[in-house]
Design brief:
two-stranded antiparallel sheet, Amino acid/polyamine transporter I, seven-stranded mixed β-sheet, 9 strands, elongated, 663 residues
Length: 663
């Protein structure tokens, strides 16, 4: 199996950090089962219906709240010179066929089949493309970084626009309280982000049923208002979309940016593939989500045709006045669920990026012992809260935020399409054929991106700046890590020759043996770690059993139990231990020691020490561009999580030896 070797110091695995990190390894060795080797998601123990309902709540929360603002924003440029029936039908046709082409065809039919051992998302697709080629490609890596960076902008804007649009619905009930919309939105967001550290396990079971109710309400409201003007059913014919674009070329180009709001959240289909599986996500979309969205959009269209006064907020105007408070309350809950899904996605993206060496270590906590996907990253959480609060306070309305939304989402989708073409071309399909297959979808997405780019001066610059900052940081970290690794590797000594020489030194008595077992963490099992050399140089001692510990990140989400640990005795007191984790797993060394013993390693926990080499990057370059990247890498290195915590090593048994390395 192909492996990505990650330095246990420089580029560790990104998974949860348990609070038990301070406990002794012996406590874990007494356990017969490794928690990280359990089922990936407790939902898999349940039936297909439970999985499907869970997918409705987690996967479709974001796209399910699009009716709150998508039709309204797309309608504004169209009705500036008056409301015309053909324009409404053309707009509805655009919305329906965008959902059909982008979500149904691209994601549900095709991309859900391109999984990396059950996992999806832009980074999983990047890994598939790299595995298919068998070599690293800088352009493909750049695409992966761009996709992850653009997702950061999406993760900032989605909670802001979703919650803000729902709270604005209360303004219909109480117009005099309109100036409280922003404070109320900020309050909800602060509460939402504040409870993240407690985990979503307690409320995850409610996500699915509440969201199912939400989609049923969308469908019922749509059916009710379609009866006002059944002629809107004609919008199912794509001819109306073509007619609208041909008749209103400039306006249609502008409208495309708002139409794309209807498919925001489609990336969650692919990103959450590993949590629920392809069939539950597909069935949920085809049976409930897609019909409910189409019916609701047509209902909004019928409403504005029969009552033009509803143009200001067609979604909430659909509800009878006595039921409006209930709809506002349900919409608020639905948007909180949608925001929760994106926040959780940001945690997962950060974890995968760290595992693939695109960002520094981050302390990650698992919030559930049953559901591995439920994690919490404090750094990501509070950074998102600050960014989301800034957006709400700055833009004040969901209408203003809508201008900033589309660029991040369209950019991410285009990256996904490009990576899919690369992957398909590397598994035997000719490149020209792969491009032809993706051309219709790619052309539509490029048209949406071009339309959204016209909104740069109206807030569209926000996701671009965020993506540039995040992308630069990821590139600087990856580049710096590669430079450090190459420089360190040049100075290191071959393990084979070292083992022979150290055996002679012990025999001559020039090196003293001390009792116990020493684990030296090293990214390369074929060379001697610098921490071991420094220990010999300054202390002139060697432990009775010296184990070179390498943590490897597989190019699959989860490692099989039989490949978790591999132990190999070498000459004299030396041996080599390799622990393997998937890129979606927690590198819990303490837990994995159970498998190390099964592999043949014998050691006394109470007489063991873990040695870690600490390296401080020092900027020495002269070119301005490289110095900026090097300084950024050095800065990020300072914020990197402590390796002993990250790898779940007992703090009272860790010895750190430092050195300065030029970049």
């Amino acid at each position: 199996m192909s492996l990505i070797k990650h330095s246990t110091v420089e580029r560790p695995d990104c998974r949860g950090i348990f609070d038990e990190a301070e406990l002794d390894i012996a406590a874990y060795l007494r356990e017969e089962a490794d928690d990280t080797d359990g089922p990936r998601l407790d939902l898999r123990k349940q039936g297909f219906i439970a999985l499907t309902i869970g997918a409705v709540g987690v996967v479709y929360g974001d796209i399910g709240t699009s009716p709150l603002y998508a039709f309204r924003e797309a309608l504004r440029p169209v009705v500036a010179d008056g409301l015309a029936r053909g324009e409404v039908l053309g707009l509805l046709s655009l919305l329906i066929w965008t959902l059909l082409l982008i979500v149904t065809v691209k994601y549900v039919i095709f991309l859900l089949r391109a999984d990396n051992n059950g996992e999806g998302g832009v980074l999983a697709l990047y890994t598939l493309a790299r595995l298919a080629s068998g070599r690293r490609s800088i352009p493909v890596l750049a695409l992966a970084i761009a996709g992850a960076a653009l997702f950061a902008g999406d993760a900032m804007i989605t909670p802001a626009i979703s919650v803000l649009s729902a709270v604005e619905g209360a303004g219909i009930l109480f117009p005099q309280l309109g100036h409280w919309v922003v404070p109320a939105t900020v309050g909800i967001l602060v509460a939402l982000f504040s409870v993240q550290q407690r985990g979503t396990a307690a409320i995850a079971g409610a996500f699915g049923p509440i969201t199912v109710l939400w989609f049923l309400v969308l469908a019922l409201l749509g059916i009710w208002h379609i009866a006002d003007d059944p002629g809107v059913l004609a919008s199912l014919n794509p001819v109306w979309a073509v007619y609208f674009i041909a008749e209103h070329q400039i306006v249609a180009f502008i409208v495309l940016g708002a139409v794309f709001l209807a498919v925001t959240g489609a990336e969650a289909l692919y990103a959450d593939l590993g949590h629920f599986g392809r069939k539950p996500i597909t069935i949920a979309w085809l049976v409930l989500i897609f019909p409910a969205l189409v019916l609701n959009y047509m209902g909004q269209g019928a409403l504005v045709l029969s009552d033009p006064t509803a143009l200001d907020n067609p979604f909430f105007r659909m509800a009878p006045e006595p039921l409006l408070p209930a709809l506002v309350a349900l919409a608020t809950v639905a948007t909180v669920i949608a925001a929760q899904a994106v926040i959780s996605g940001a945690y997962s993206m950060a974890r995968a990026a760290t595992q693939l060496g695109l960002c520094p270590r981050m302390t990650i906590h698992h919030t559930s012992h049953d559901q591995r996907g439920q994690i919490y990253i404090a750094a990501v959480n509070w950074a998102l809260l600050v960014a989301v609060t800034y957006l709400v306070v700055s833009f004040e309305t969901s209408e203003a935020l809508a201008s900033a939304y589309g660029i991040a989402v369209t950019g991410t989708m285009i990256v996904t399409t490009a990576l899919a073409v690369i992957y398909i071309s590397r598994i035997g399909v000719p490149l020209s054929a792969a491009i032809l297959m993706a051309l219709p979808i790619g052309a539509v997405e490029l048209a949406f991106l071009a339309s959204n780019l016209t909104k740069i001066t109206h807030g569209g610059y926000i996701p671009i700046i965020v993506a540039l900052v995040a992308g630069t940081a990821m590139w600087a970290w990856w580049r710096g890590s590669q430079i450090i690794r190459m420089k360190i590797h040049k100075r290191l000594i071959s393990l084979e020759s070292f083992a022979r020489s150290i055996a002679g030194s012990v025999a001559k008595g020039t090196v003293d043996l001390v009792p116990g077992t020493a684990f030296f963490l090293t990214p390369d099992p074929d060379v001697v770690p610098s921490a071991l050399l420094h220990n010999l140089k300054h202390n002139h001692v060697l432990h009775e059993q010296t184990v070179l510990l390498t943590i490897e990140t597989l190019r699959v989400p989860y490692a099989a139990l039989e490949e978790r640990a591999q132990w190999q005795p070498l000459d004299g007191q030396l041996s080599r231990l390799t622990l393997r984790f998937g890129y979606m797993e927690t590198p819990n060394v303490a837990h994995a020691m159970v498998h190390a013993r099964k592999a043949g390693l014998k050691f006394d926990v109470m007489r063991s020490s873990f040695f870690i080499g600490r390296r401080r990057p020092v900027v020495t370059g002269h070119r301005a561009t490289t110095r900026i990247l090097d300084r950024l890498y050095a800065l990020l290195y300072r914020f990197s999580a402590d390796p002993s915590d990250f790898y779940h090593l007992p703090r009272d048994r860790v010895v750190e030896l430092g050195e300065r390395v030029a970049v």
